[in-house]
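Protocol step 4 of 5: obtain the predicted structure for the target chain.
Materials: sequence only (see below). No template structures provided, no constraints applied. The aim of this step is simply to have a reference model before the mutagenesis design in step 5. Sequence pasted as it appears in the construct record:
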Amino acid sequence: MLVYDPATNPLNNNEWAFPLTECIHIAAMAFSIGTIALVDLRLLGLGLTKQTAAQLARSTEIWTLAGLVGVITSGLLIFSSDPVHYLHNGPFQFKMGMLLAGIVFHYTGHRQVALSGRRGARAWLIACVSLLLWLSLVFAGIFIAFV
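Step 4 output (structure tokens):
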């Protein structure tokens, strides 16, 4: 029977591996959520007012995707350092739910509204929900270490 031993994971054997991976994870998260927030703030009528939400969405989409790929890749590496701990951690479970909801929401309703160039109550609601999803994911990530 195969049993996972966290002591054999390179992230747990090198003094710098886990902190470096964590830094990459946080930077990629800031990158992806930051580009999404730029579009959300524009949908709210704030932020970069010289560009439309559609222009911002188009110009940041590759950077958002790159950030999400970095977040997921580094997150899987961090998860591999002690999967049993993370699987039984409430904030981690919440974070994974918010990540899934955020990605689905971003690439469906959010993207549709942002690229349509529409303004009004629907765009405002979409932006608020998007910001709430991504911010809750960040706060859940912070609390993983405390549980």
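Step 4 remarks: The first helix runs from residue 10 to 13. Residues 6-146 form one domain.
Proceed to step 5.
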